[in-house]
Records
---
Amino acid sequence: MLTILVITAIVVLLLLPMNRVSANEREKKVLMVVTHHDHFDNGRKTGLWLEEFAVPYTLFVEAGFTVTTASLQGGSCPIDPGSVDKRIGAEWKQAADILQQTEILSQINYQEYDALMIPGGHGPLYDLANSKALDEIISYFDAQNKIIAAVCHGTGTLLQAVRKDGMPVVTDKKITGFTNAEEILVQAEQLVPFSLEDRANTKGARFVAGTPWSDHIEIDGNLITGQNPQSSKQLGEAVVNAVLHVD
């Protein structure tokens, strides 16, 4: 009888490390939320800026993450024509194909995900920035201290969400996004529904504006934000690093 108990104890001890490894090495999941809006009020085309989706998406896939792409309505995500040449290069084709059939955000079990990432283009300022469904997801990720990332105008979608104490998620946080100076350079300062930089400041964020078109990100706790398309790679790498090193 004693021998059986000893053997049982040894087996249990051997299995415990295996279980811990399995939990630590579980599949990592990233939810990417993209716009469904394709024009400014004057009819000028906009949408998603492809680089801001394709570069982080590719990095996430290469890291072995499972990536789900969703929009408010599902279906095809409009790509800003200014963000692509006449044809999409091979390195971004997989990402571009994914954008042709996004999932419906309200049908996603977002609690399963390790990170939330929102790319830009001017489109998100029209739909995602006014989405209570997305606000709820952002607030959940913040409450759970999960990674929240956004690049360029994607940062504008973070400004309405609130923390458990009722304050904006971005209050007292160092963040960045497409700057007023950059809006002027692309002749969109009179077209956008709001200034991302100005609204961020009114929400109590510590908005950091880098030199126009500089590769610039800010990391403050679980918030990771990038200024512009040029920041897409650095932001994607920061998200990968953060997800892999979550306790």
---
Amino acid sequence: MDIHLHPKQGLLLKSIATEILFGGAAGGGKSFLMRALAIIWCATIPGLQVYLFRRILDDLIKNHIEGSRGFRAMLAPWVLTGRVQIIDSEIRFWNGSKIYLCHCQHEKDRFKYQGAEIHVLLMDELTTFTEVIYRFLRTRVRMTSIAVPKEFAGMFPRILAGSNPGNIGHGWVKAAWGLGRDGARNAMEVWRTPDEEGGMLRQYVPAKLEDNPTMAQDDPLYRARLRGLGSAALVRAFEQGDWDAVAGSFLEGVFDPDRHIVQPFTVPHTWKVWRAMDWGFAKPYSVGWWALSNDGVYYRWRELYGYGGKPDVGSREEPSAVARRIKEIETHDERLGYEYRQNIADSAIFSETGTETIARAFRQGGVAWRECAKGKNSRVNGAQRVVDLLMADRLKVFESCKHWIRTVPLLMPNPTRLEDVDTKMEDHAWDETRYAIGAIRRNPEDPDRQMSDDAPEPTQTDADGNYRIHAQ
């Protein structure tokens, strides 16, 4: 069998890295490369076990089994001679090597592979997978009693993933491989990850359409169709492999870092200022300090985020500890003339949890919150309000709000409710933003007066001294 690899694809056959991300742009030959390397390695290394994953079963069948360049077509000569058998989702080689064709649509499905010994893990379209699935499957990558030829010494077990930017996994994949203009790694660089990140040799190998001459030869108009996607972010992501372009995000075409991220400045004491919080313990909490300018622009100018060292992992701080941190941050604010009044937090902190509410613990620490009542369609209405403000250039974020910038632009639409973000993603700063925007409204009849959503001002407080206001 003659399998031809283009120069960029051939680099992966020789790379010493054991955890490789290949791709970026569409048409770079990612899927074919995975099939080709799986066949080459299985034919060369007796007893090798290769697991190839796509998130959805239908995509696995259409992309890797069927078609003129799928496994059936590629292996047809060996199938005819009996050297290879394709039985359902398993490809068996004459030397005992196997390729398992797998999918993992739901996070719970990962446990089906708990007993697997994966010598080569191939993950096609990695950004369609959650980090939870990937980390678990990586623990199954191990190898015993397999004689590896000298030319492949030290290269197994290994992981090869292919992906374009975008989708639900964009954020964690970008962070893991240090991608984008603020990334910590250079293309082609090989580095050892720490034990808590798997301890493998990681590498990013970028590939564009021009690195796959076969595509240009077979379909010369493919690039034109990429440029006709209708979205500048999608074109940058799919044609250029730009990891700073968030393709398919909820705020695609709405959020523009050049317009909406601003350099920090001193917030005038004459502006309305307030706090908002989305609480979290095992998941991150997000506290944002907000200001409303005299001309009606909302600024998120300070943040405190319960980052536990990994995306969507909380710092597990007690409410009293977070209250102390807030008080420390605000030590000099009163002297500067800032008065925080209509401070709003999610309603969950007002629920009884044992002996006291989380809100009461904050109150005892000197930080009082008003409850954000979550009514029907409040998520959708709040999301639309944020979109409207961004479109009108009336919502700005200080460049120092790193976790807002890291998470909010990457949020994808909820697949079952497109008017909202996907709540399975790291949406804590987003929710805090909705609360903040809903808490303070500018009165169009009196530009100098700001209103809460249930103005006039409420006069009733709960047992903790907290007001209840409604936020969209």
